[in-house]
Amino acid sequence: MSDREPADKTLALLFKHLIDHPDQLRYGLFCVDWRQVPVEAWLGRFISATEAPAAPGPSGFSRTAFDQAVREALTHWRDSAALAACALTRTRLAADLADPVGELRALLRQAVDDLAGDPRGVRAREALTAGYFSGAPTQEAAARRLSLPYGTYRRHVRQGLDLLCEALWQQELHGPR
Question: Coil, strand or helix: which one is 65?
Fold first, then answer.
């Protein structure tokens, strides 16, 4: 971690300077974080791509707005019209979906199921499934279904939302892995 720190600080200072002084920006900047995507994987995707790649660069959403959009989508899981109007449908995750509502539901469901792959995410996955996907009328009812005290259930939901938002944010920035 310490070997990356000077470069990270340098980039942070560069971006801060460019934000503070936009009039001094004369050239564009392109960068790839090779720590996140190995060169071989990037070249493989680039060479085998048959369609135009997703829009390059950062997400059009801030991390806070993206997390709020994920929470909104989960809240409107059962209401197709509300899910179609949700902010998550305007992210890069959903940009090329033929059936935005159906495929967004599948994407969210798969991302929640993937939480069980991490020992920290097993209970979080159960809480999210009971609270959003199972049709429980209230959060209290979902806690009762899991035989958990309400406070414990809410802790698992918060942890699950954090893990889910992080996983989806990584897909938003770097595409599916």
Answer: helix
Cα-to-chain-centroid distance, residue 3: 28
Place of tokens 């159960």: 126
Cβ atoms of 172 and 92 within 8 Å: the answer is yes
12-20 contacts at long range (C-beta below 8 A, 24 or more positions apart): none
In sequence order, what DSSP letters do the residues of 96-152 get, joined into one string?
T-SSHHHHHHHHHHHHHHHGGGSGGGHHHHHHHIIIIIS--SSHHHHHHHTT--HHH
Instruction: Count the residues in the chain.
Output: 177
Summarised one tens digit per residue, pLDDT across range 46-59 is 676 655 545 545 56
Q: Is the pTM of this model over 0.70?
A: no
Residue 137 in contact with residue 143, Cβ under 8 Å?
Answer: no
